[in-house]
Amino acid sequence: MALSANYAFAGEAEWNAHMDAGASAYRAGDYRTATTRLEAALREAESFGTSDSRLATTLNNLALLYDSQGRYAEAEPLYRRTLGIQEKALGPDHPNVGTSLNNLAALYQTQGRYAESEPLFQRSMAIREKTLGPDHADVGQSLNNLAVLYQTQGRYTEAEPLYRRSLEILKKILGADHPDVGNLLNNLAELYRLQGRSAEAEPLYQRSLAIREKTLGANHSDVAVSLNNLALLYRTQGRYVDAEPLFRRSLEIDEKALGPNHPSVGKSLNNLAELYREQGRYTESEPLYQRSLAIREKAIGPDHSDIAVSLNNLALLYQEQGRYAEGEPLYRRSLGIYEKVLGPDHPDVAVSLNNLALLYQTLGRYAEAEPLHRRSLGVREKILGLDHPDVAVSLNTLAAVYKSQGRYVEAEPLHRRSLGVREKALGRDHPDVAVSLNNLAGLYQMQGRYVEAEPLHRRSLGIQEKTLGPDHPSVGTSLNNLAWLNRAQGKVDEALALARRANTSLARRFTADSSKSRRGAVGEQRTRSGAFEFHVSLLAERGLQARAEATREGFEVAQLARASDTAEQVAKMAARHAAGSDALAQLARARQDTMARFEQLDSRIVQAAGQRGAEALAAKLRTEQSESLKAITELDARLERDYPQYRELINPKPLELAAAQKLLAEDEAMALLLVSTDESFLWVLRRSDARFLKLAVKRSELAEAVKKLRTQLDLG
Q1: Beta pairing class for 680-686 and 689-695
Q2: Would you state the torsion angle of the CA atoms of residues 645, 646, 649, 650, taken in this order, to the nearest 10 degrees?
Q3: pLDDT digits (tens, 9 = 90+) for 277-301
């Protein structure tokens, strides 16, 4: 923050004292004190006259401070007043006018007002080149700022030469270890990352981080930016273990330096949430996404591209959890914002198109999915080039649409090209390479090309276990795919062993801590029901010598396949009955009702997020949800003290067959029916006996029979 020279006028001492104290507080990261002192300086400066340069300096510095705190609506009129004073007092081509234009342009860029930002940046650079010369540090800064704008707009080929020229100027003038050089290295690295040039990006990120830590200190907000961006690169490379501590440290610095509601905190929360989502840690991911969205809506308004990022990522989470009805409006609103702010041919628009198409594809709406996939691929090839990893994403998803429709000849070259691009750009052991291997193997499997499919499935599984860990949902999917292949080849025992490995991990996932909201877990469990049904089908194929084991094991697996809200409610009812006293039962009921209220509010918040203009409603609902969460925490503390077995009782783990039999009287029986796509299974339990039967009844046939029965029961 630059201050003017000293003045010998009335109020000079007070003004100077406030300005110096404000600048010192800003450098120390104490924004509250900085704001108080600079606002006091402005009150002094207003008495100097409307054309006084001290007033312009004060307005500019206070605007910069507001800007850095995300208080954009307060910053803009101050920047405009500064510009007006300087143009009148100094003329339109003075270097100080160039600085004011630059600051106002940067504000517009932050707000996503790119069309207003670009001409200001260009005019600022022209003034600086004319008055200061082409190799001045301020010209280097203008080049950098214009490059950042072009990068944000996806104009990568225009951005790179500006970055390179800026870097050359700043290194020559300021030295290789200056913070501004560190900033420029970070920006150039970010451009390379977006272009898929990871090998070129990483050393620049690391050098930028080293410069910033050395010159600014370990807890400066610019250090947080470097940590965040290096973590983003590692996440892109599938290096999750390396990425997480960097994201966490970046978030901690931002919260401390900028406050909990700053847009940079929203960005850090979003990125950490995205890491957790990619790792399958959905319960940890969702509240971070929600908090990020709330911060961004409050700080930058409803139509900023960062809002679109939050909406898109939250929708991705819901899609992976099978919460499709919640995800679709978020995708649609995200796409609308991107197209409005960035134009139809931006890479972020391509991401949104691809993700909405994937949702339609999952729901079998292929006619709606295909044109979106094609448009996404076209944008990416045009903007990013034919060998970018994002192009591989579009190739892979378009191939999946063809495969689902039986268009195998069209699908195969796309899958092969996707795999080639990913191996070249990301390396042979990247998780995205595993996705391409799995999908190409699935195509071969559908065509009966088992010998070609198996090594691809095995290589995909190996990569995922190594990079994602054994309990990631994608590992379960790969195990099940390999099990399907073994079964198709008549190797039932090998298939069953793989299905057991897959579903042991999934079972742990879906019977986790029930003290938290389980909406997401139940939704995800429903999307995985086919894996459990397949497991039961394999058990039914085993010989008579294994029938007792199959009956016992299948009874538990079938319960996992039948995930439902009903099962949740039954478990909660049982917990209330087991309380042993009315007071504890009422406490358990209060906790369950409060959680239900929390989940209802969560659903309404998601609905509001999908609607433009509902930001005030969303904020109100979040306040109510925060109060519900506080009440849940208090009730949990009481339950932990007075009813410690409550948490275990409400966890809807499968009931063991022997335990179920003990609940039956001698003249009672229990039946459990599991209906799958092509067959059904029935367990009949008596206290001293259990039977496991395979029925030749398909889900569609049973649904039709139920429909006819209901018709017969209708009153005329």
Answers
A1: antiparallel
A2: -160
A3: 988 888 889 999 999 999 988 887 7
